[in-house]
């Protein structure tokens, strides 16, 4: 009986220790230079529907079901999706703008698990066009925070961000016909 108590005590101590050292937050971002005027890039990015043309997740499920609520490009607009196991189900809501430089949204995932993140697109004017930074940040609540000791969020979605930004660059830099 004492052995069982010691084992349980060790397990509880281990879980508490892991919860203490586990990352409580995450922030993943990537940037790209787009050789177009910053104002033009911002005006493209502030519309969530435009993400369909450059988001890597649309390629993962071209048959994804999408619904829209509100007026695109305005605070409160919601783009919702339901797709295969690679994209799950969720919604993205425009929550804040800084005209010409910043688009913020709330990402709410429903499947395969529930979570919420703050997503952002930052546009900065640079000598040859615009620097676009795409990222998202959030909290790792217990017990999911323990899993983050074994999963690197940056590695998990960083390549998707890089792919999406390259798609964005290709679209915006394409010569107009």
TrEMBL record:
SUPFAM superfamilies registered for this protein in UniProt: Bet v1-like
Matching InterPro entries: Polyketide_cyclase/dehydratase, START-like_dom_sf
Pfam families, alphabetized: Polyketide_cyc2 (PF10604)
Domain of life of the source: Bacteria
Signal peptide limits: none
Protein name, as recorded: Potassium-transporting ATPase subunit F
Annotated organism of origin: Neptunitalea chrysea
